Amino acid sequence: MKKRFLSMLMASAMCLSLAACGGGANNDGGGSAASGSGTGGGDELITVGFSQVGAESDWRTANTESMKSTFSEENGYKLIFDDAQQKQENQITAIRNFIQQDVDYIMLAPVTETGWDTVLQEAYDAGIPVIIVDRMVDVSDEELYTSWIGTDALLEGRKAAEWLNAYATAKGWDASEINIAHIQGTMGSTAQIGRTQGLEEGIEKYGWNLLSQQCGEFTQAKGQEVMESMLKQYDNINVVYCENDNEAFGAIDAIEAAGKKVGTDIKNGEILVISFDTTNAGLTDVLEGKIVCNVECNPLHGPRAEELIKAMEAGEEVEKLTYVDEEIFAYDDTVKSVTATNSLDKEGEYAVTKLTQEILDGRAY
Length: 365
Ligand code: AHR
Hints:
- The protein has about 375 residues and is of the alpha/beta class.
- The protein folds into two domains: about 1-25 and about 30-150 and about 300-325, Response regulator (Rossmann fold), CATH 3.40.50; about 155-295 and about 335-360, Rossmann fold (3-Layer(aba) Sandwich).
- The protein has eleven helices and 15 strands.
- It has helices at about 1-20, 60-70, 90-100, 115-125, 155-170, 190-205, 220-235, 245-255, 280-285, 300-315, 355-360; strands spanning about 45-50, 75-85, 105-110, 130-135, 145-150, 180-185, 210-215, 240, 260, 270-275, 295, 320-325, 330, 335-340, 345-355.
- The strands form two sheets. Strands 6, 7, 8, 9, 10, 11, 13, 14 and 15 form a nine-stranded mixed beta sheet that branches. Strands 2-1-3-4-5-12 form a six-stranded parallel beta sheet, sandwiched between helices.
- α2 packs parallel to α10 and α5 runs parallel beside α6.
- It is elongated, with a radius of gyration of 23 Å.
- The structure holds alpha-L-arabinofuranose.
């Protein structure tokens, strides 16, 4: 931001000294990143480097799309997008490239929480503001990033656990009858840490049985593989807690291939699948009763990140942390709402919406 204002000042000084300033010059701020479509002066594109985790899930695809459509040239941005293929070392390399290209802003969707101090210090020393999106970073000095925007994964996990308790209670199932298979997301990611903690607190509080806990890496293929191995090991699984929709798709395939049924009633031998994300395909499974409860993780961060950049461009202070409001959808209306505590220790009541085709049709992702 500081660098950008400086380069704008320098540009106007150059215009003055030349007495005339023709359009069409590239304004790539001393780097090489900006394309030639900026017209100079006030029309200069804002250069943003975005290091994306990868393309592991439907959620991620929606998130990438939101960022790309927001940070377009028509909107005044030159976006340098990098897909890290779920590898932190690729993200670190991408950030170093952004610094070298002297971008105006860096956006980072970090694969895991730890391991960012060195590279974020480099961005800080270069005077480039860093916006963290989606997952969080765990750094020794919070000054190393300017702002974070994303999901409250712990609250999501707690919502799911409270939903399971309320549903089981309404059905008259004893806690000792609940046998859970837990498919975790990428280990060390905010989404995994929070959703795992939410479930583990529920297990501690209500006394359900946790049969198995394995990592499904947030992908359909791994979710299926892990579920297959769990089904071979245990014949009494009746709840599968998947940490995202793609893991749930894989788990459902594995359950059905094993001749078992997903559904809503453990007394009928059905297996309840709980998931996160509420992507279009995930909610389609909710409508069909294959996923009984799906807790939203909203991926549409593009416009939110742009708001932050606009505020910074206007010289305004921005919030350090912004949590996005999210919903809960279920196959039926057995549970109307749940009470859960968020990451800021604030208790709230959250409505559970019985999904309909109309609601699904009206959703943006
Ligand atoms: O960090 C958000 C999580 O990452 C989403 O739940 C998942 O689908 C994605 O891969």
